[in-house]
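*Target chain*
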Amino acid sequence: MISNKKGNTLVELIMVMAILTLFGVTIFVLISTGSDTQKSIISKKDAQVNARIALSYVNVRIRQNDKLGNIEVLPNSVNGNDSIFIKDFEYGQSLWIFWDNGCLYEQMTSEGETVGLNKAYYIADIEGFVTGYDQEDGSITNAVEYLYDGKEKSLSSTIFLRSGSDDL
Protein backbone atom coordinates (compact mmCIF):
# COMPACT_ATOMS: atom_id res chain seq x y z
CA MET A 1 0.00 0.00 0.00
CA ILE A 2 1.29 3.38 -1.00
CA SER A 3 0.60 6.31 1.29
CA ASN A 4 -0.14 9.74 -0.03
CA LYS A 5 1.13 12.54 2.23
CA LYS A 6 -0.16 15.84 1.04
CA GLY A 7 0.95 18.35 3.67
CA ASN A 8 2.21 18.66 7.19
CA THR A 9 0.54 17.24 10.17
CA LEU A 10 -0.40 19.37 13.14
CA VAL A 11 2.23 17.68 15.32
CA GLU A 12 5.03 18.61 12.92
CA LEU A 13 3.84 22.22 12.79
CA ILE A 14 3.73 22.50 16.58
CA MET A 15 7.24 20.99 16.88
CA VAL A 16 8.69 23.48 14.38
CA MET A 17 7.01 26.39 16.18
CA ALA A 18 8.30 25.17 19.56
CA ILE A 19 11.86 24.88 18.21
CA LEU A 20 11.70 28.36 16.65
CA THR A 21 10.30 29.82 19.89
CA LEU A 22 13.04 28.15 21.94
CA PHE A 23 15.66 29.47 19.51
CA GLY A 24 14.18 33.01 19.71
CA VAL A 25 14.07 33.02 23.52
CA THR A 26 17.68 31.77 23.67
CA ILE A 27 18.86 34.55 21.32
CA PHE A 28 16.93 37.15 23.34
CA VAL A 29 18.49 35.98 26.64
CA LEU A 30 21.99 36.01 25.14
CA ILE A 31 21.57 39.53 23.71
CA SER A 32 20.05 40.81 26.96
CA THR A 33 22.84 39.31 29.08
CA GLY A 34 25.49 40.72 26.76
CA SER A 35 23.89 44.16 26.88
CA ASP A 36 23.77 44.14 30.71
CA THR A 37 27.41 43.04 30.86
CA GLN A 38 28.44 45.81 28.47
CA LYS A 39 26.56 48.44 30.54
CA SER A 40 28.28 47.20 33.70
CA ILE A 41 31.73 47.35 32.11
CA ILE A 42 31.11 50.83 30.72
CA SER A 43 29.84 52.05 34.09
CA LYS A 44 32.96 50.75 35.86
CA LYS A 45 35.27 52.28 33.27
CA ASP A 46 33.41 55.62 33.37
CA ALA A 47 33.85 55.78 37.15
CA GLN A 48 37.59 55.08 36.82
CA VAL A 49 38.00 57.60 33.98
CA ASN A 50 36.13 60.32 35.90
CA ALA A 51 38.30 59.70 38.97
CA ARG A 52 41.48 59.94 36.89
CA ILE A 53 40.25 63.09 35.14
CA ALA A 54 39.38 64.74 38.46
CA LEU A 55 42.69 63.87 40.11
CA SER A 56 44.70 64.89 37.06
CA TYR A 57 42.82 68.17 36.80
CA VAL A 58 43.46 69.02 40.46
CA ASN A 59 47.14 68.12 40.17
CA VAL A 60 47.62 70.26 37.04
CA ARG A 61 45.91 73.26 38.67
CA ILE A 62 48.13 72.96 41.74
CA ARG A 63 51.30 72.64 39.68
CA GLN A 64 50.33 75.60 37.48
CA ASN A 65 49.92 77.84 40.51
CA ASP A 66 52.72 76.56 42.74
CA LYS A 67 54.07 79.85 44.07
CA LEU A 68 54.80 80.81 47.65
CA GLY A 69 51.57 81.69 49.43
CA ASN A 70 49.27 80.90 46.47
CA ILE A 71 47.75 77.58 47.57
CA GLU A 72 45.79 76.78 50.71
CA VAL A 73 43.44 74.06 51.90
CA LEU A 74 40.35 75.75 53.34
CA PRO A 75 36.75 74.80 54.09
CA ASN A 76 34.38 75.99 51.37
CA SER A 77 31.13 77.88 51.95
CA VAL A 78 28.98 75.32 50.09
CA ASN A 79 29.30 72.38 52.51
CA GLY A 80 32.26 73.17 54.79
CA ASN A 81 34.47 70.42 53.35
CA ASP A 82 38.17 71.04 52.82
CA SER A 83 38.81 72.48 49.38
CA ILE A 84 41.75 73.78 47.41
CA PHE A 85 41.99 77.56 47.38
CA ILE A 86 44.37 79.13 44.85
CA LYS A 87 45.07 82.86 45.02
CA ASP A 88 45.97 84.88 41.97
CA PHE A 89 47.56 88.03 43.32
CA GLU A 90 48.18 89.48 39.87
CA TYR A 91 44.51 89.61 38.82
CA GLY A 92 42.81 89.71 42.22
CA GLN A 93 40.92 86.47 41.54
CA SER A 94 40.91 83.19 43.42
CA LEU A 95 40.10 79.66 42.31
CA TRP A 96 38.26 77.18 44.50
CA ILE A 97 38.28 73.46 43.71
CA PHE A 98 35.66 71.68 45.79
CA TRP A 99 33.42 68.63 45.91
CA ASP A 100 29.68 68.60 46.55
CA ASN A 101 27.01 65.95 46.13
CA GLY A 102 28.85 63.60 43.76
CA CYS A 103 30.61 66.19 41.59
CA LEU A 104 33.92 68.02 41.60
CA TYR A 105 33.65 71.73 40.78
CA GLU A 106 35.82 74.79 40.35
CA GLN A 107 34.85 78.40 40.77
CA MET A 108 36.65 81.67 40.21
CA THR A 109 35.85 84.26 42.87
CA SER A 110 36.67 87.88 43.45
CA GLU A 111 37.95 89.09 46.80
CA GLY A 112 35.26 88.59 49.44
CA GLU A 113 32.99 86.53 47.18
CA THR A 114 31.76 83.18 48.57
CA VAL A 115 31.65 79.89 46.73
CA GLY A 116 28.28 78.74 45.38
CA LEU A 117 27.09 76.03 43.01
CA ASN A 118 25.26 78.57 40.84
CA LYS A 119 28.57 79.98 39.53
CA ALA A 120 30.71 76.85 39.73
CA TYR A 121 31.92 74.84 36.74
CA TYR A 122 31.51 71.08 36.68
CA ILE A 123 34.71 69.02 36.37
CA ALA A 124 33.74 65.35 36.89
CA ASP A 125 31.36 62.95 38.65
CA ILE A 126 33.10 61.35 41.64
CA GLU A 127 31.92 59.86 44.92
CA GLY A 128 34.14 61.99 47.13
CA PHE A 129 37.14 64.30 47.33
CA VAL A 130 39.52 64.69 50.25
CA THR A 131 42.42 67.12 50.33
CA GLY A 132 44.94 67.97 53.00
CA TYR A 133 48.08 70.04 53.47
CA ASP A 134 51.12 68.78 55.38
CA GLN A 135 53.05 71.78 56.73
CA GLU A 136 56.09 69.70 57.68
CA ASP A 137 57.02 68.70 54.15
CA GLY A 138 54.98 71.25 52.19
CA SER A 139 52.85 68.70 50.38
CA ILE A 140 49.21 68.53 49.38
CA THR A 141 47.57 65.12 49.28
CA ASN A 142 44.41 64.67 47.23
CA ALA A 143 42.18 61.61 47.15
CA VAL A 144 39.33 60.99 44.73
CA GLU A 145 36.77 58.34 45.62
CA TYR A 146 34.67 56.39 43.11
CA LEU A 147 32.49 53.29 42.97
CA TYR A 148 33.80 50.23 41.16
CA ASP A 149 31.63 47.12 41.11
CA GLY A 150 29.66 48.48 44.08
CA LYS A 151 32.79 48.98 46.17
CA GLU A 152 34.29 52.33 47.05
CA LYS A 153 37.77 52.77 45.60
CA SER A 154 40.18 55.65 45.87
CA LEU A 155 42.91 57.26 43.77
CA SER A 156 45.31 59.57 45.55
CA SER A 157 48.36 61.67 44.86
CA THR A 158 50.76 63.77 46.84
CA ILE A 159 52.28 66.89 45.38
CA PHE A 160 55.35 68.36 47.01
CA LEU A 161 55.04 72.06 46.40
CA ARG A 162 58.06 73.83 44.94
CA SER A 163 57.19 76.74 47.17
CA GLY A 164 58.27 74.56 50.08
CA SER A 165 56.99 74.06 53.56
CA ASP A 166 56.63 77.74 54.41
CA ASP A 167 53.17 78.79 55.53
CA LEU A 168 50.63 78.36 52.79
About this structure: Residues 37-160 form one domain. Helices lie at 10-64. The mean pLDDT is 87.
